[in-house]
Write the structure tokens for this entry.
Amino acid sequence: MAAVAHDTHGHHDAHGHHDHGHHEESFVSKYIFSEDHKMIGKQFLVTAVFMGIVAMLLSILFRIQLAWPGESSNFLSFFLGETWAPGGVLKEDMYLGLVTIHGTIMVFFLLTGGLSGTFSNILIPLQLGARDMASGFLNMLSYWFFCLSSIIMFVSLFVETGPAMAGWTVYPPLSALPQSISGNGLGMTLWLFSMAIFIAGSLIGSLNYIVTVLNLRTTGMTMTRMPLTIWAFFVTAILGVLSFPVLLSAALLLIMDRLAGTSFYLSDIIVGGEMLTNHGGSPILFQHLFWFLGHPEVYIVLLPALGLSSEIIATNARKPIFGYRAMIGSILAIGFLSFIVWGHHMFITGMNPFLGSVFVFTTLLIAIPSAVKVFNYITTLWKGSLVLTPAMLFAIGLVSTFITGGVTGIILADSALDIAIHDTYFVVAHFHIVMGMSAVFGMFGGVYHWFPKMYGRMMNTRLGYAHFWITIVGAYGVFFPMHFVGLAGAPRRYYDYSVYNEFDTNSYDMIMDLNVIVTVFAIIAALGQLLFLFNFFYSIYRGPKAPQNPWKSNTLEWTTPVEHVHGNWPGEIPTVHRWPYDYSKPGAEEDYIPQNVPLAEGEEEH
Amino acid sequence: MGGKLITLIVIVLGVIAIAQLVRVYELTSKLRNRGEHDITERDNNLNGKMMFGFMLAMYAFFFYLMATFGWTGRGEAASNIGKETDWLLDLNFIIIIAVFFLTNTLLFYFSYKYVRKPGVKALYFPHNNKLEMIWTIVPACVLAVIIILGLKKWNDATGDAKKEAIRVELFSKQFDWTARYSGKDNQLGRFDYKLTTDNNELALLTAETIDSAIASMENGPNGIKTLESKLNDAKLMMIPEDREKMETDLSRKQRMIRLLYQMKERHDNKSDKAVWDDVIQKDTLFLCVNKEYEFNFRAKDVIHSAFFPHFRAQMNTVPGMVTRFKFTPDITTKDMRERMNNPKFNYVLMCNKICGGAHYKMKMIVVVLEETQYKSWMASKKSFKDSYFAAAAAAAAPATMPADSTAVAKDSVSVAMN
């Protein structure tokens, strides 16, 4: 099988880049062990969609418990059975298991693997004018590592003692001591191995993206003529390469503490009546290592979404993106700053307060490039000629949620205020609006916009509209009220709030009212996603054929044939003569001029 | 089962129905010679209007939530630092809510105003340095104010406590809290986790507690001697796993006992005094109004977090290290009940770091008393010395003396407040 794959690809290389469409490929080399970046991108997407459905379902399960605690639910017993939901009531331990796996899948598998993996793969070679990624083989490996880690994470849900239950941040000692909670046996081990494999895959992928961006740009594609999508993927990949290895080391040390009896994170512990001899380790060390990845991770999730939306907004506003160079500068500034802010997750861990103040300063600085980006988006819309495709709606929705989620970050970054709201639902609301809405909206926008490029067919626009409106109403309906739950002082990761009955019944009533609102909206939003799933899979097979350049866009991917060919362009690779944002340029006939069109006589570059 | 079948059928029929609708829609599009990428004027304008309508609805929802659930949940801040926190929080909220309305309004208004109109071309406007300078510098200035105010407050909150501040230790474990007051000398005695025994849950360090820890580790029900005799007993049949477990336990205890003997050799009796006058308190934490407290936090097993929502105070408790936080409660429980209009209201200390299955139940009621009430409550408490030796005596003669711990637990809120 490997020989077959090797043979077809060797063939390509030997023949240069002619007549790629005529090859007969075996099913295996085309759909499974493919080295073609377009197919790998689609593999990432479909895997991530599957993982996303799982994680969304988990969230509905625990939201039911939060809104109607202790009430029997057929829905819960259907999915969790008698083991984890005896009589249809969720078990305490499993509640934490659901929360943990929901967070892990959403952050890593949907928004890192799914977002950056899908679109970096599809768009980097196509928008740069490259035949494929720098290394097709490594690219294939990166997907299979991702797939393997997804399978392990999914399987861990079915372990008899339950999945990992220490929260997606898996802080030791809780995660290091199998005695402390039931999922900390095999479930936690699988979690750690899955993540280690995931990181390996992500590293290979990121290195590939960086090399491709630096080396395989077509003639004329200077760095300052690259679309903002590519800039975003490029910086994302650099962040991944620099920060993921640190998470790997954190995970390895944790594996050692669990399996080899070391004391990296453990000191002076008595658990379940057992006095442990571990001495001298520090649980805080893990938090430093974890958040050294954890914070750049937020931007690994967000930057690709911002890049995609820059492209979508410029195209559909029929206007150049406002402040192209400032946008690049903001991406770079956000990327750099994201490495020196991790301590804002740890203000109240007992870390030295002076260190805390440094992190306050650096964290609040990030608000400046973020503000620049928001204002630039808004100015791009100003006096545009907006075509509100579903992708465009999602991109505008992204800007709105980026604002709403961003401003509450200012409160959380302020250590003095963080003391009062740390680990409450206010935090949950904040990062869900940024990651669960902004980044996901970017991903949906990307799927709607580039679906014709991925599958050669169009998605249904009306269903797209319905999907957008249900999603934005539902998601805001979920996460707006959560701020108020948090301000009322409700801690996150609580199985229920019955404890409030013992000291403040008024707060209890308020929290319960809000929790019901949140859960109802969550169910509406989740049902709305069914429209997307139907539209997505239906259109892959039955959607109308896509035209060459459906959105009248300038970037190079729309110059490739609708039917995919190996090597992307059947003939010569296009040459680039201009930046990608010549929309509605005065003096031009059409309101767009693709990048491969030479400058007209007397025409100035932007 | 029948229910599930019907659900399944309904879902399948629903999917088929949508598929048919989509099919019809596609055929009509085909008849009109219109592709999915052509957005009609009607769709475009409708969505533009919906953008604007959505903005209004979102603002209405926001105002509704503010009016119904606004900053009321935990009432007025009941400590000195909490009042400053609330002031700063309000200021920050005013700033961010203003930004939220300004930018969202621009965004949605433009999305509505500038939808494509036939014959109107978009403005080619690639950049403008002046504008970009404005929206770099203005946020930078606002942030400078936020940072300066925040750091000033942060330094106040995390600075060292006054010398006369009352020292109290909060000891956390799965899933409860124990408080230790520093007693008359206002000095918390030393501790070492290896000294944990039934009679010394907080592992306090004195010559006596070292001896008793050694004794229980050597001769206790699961002590070294018992383990050795079991492991060496040729007649005792054991599952290999149990034997292995016992062997690990034994080797662990043998290492521990060496450390305990070293501790005994090095121990200086002078520090015992600070331990003996400490006062241990479970269930309810009593504090005196307008007195500064310095809390020292310890954790026995995993990380917990001491969260006092009403005092706006929070600090993690970390195994292997001591963390600190200070505040001065300034409203008594009695006054707060009146202000909250809730005669059953109480302050609380909750766990706010995931720590296991019953995490959500891990709390301790906090009661703030007037100074006289506080003093008389404190006078009624036994020192660690008294309770330790009383319990040791009770253990020696278990039949004659019931443990008085239940009586202490009844030390309820209302008794102290009257």
Notes: The mean pLDDT of chain B is 89. The radius of gyration of chain B is 33 Å.
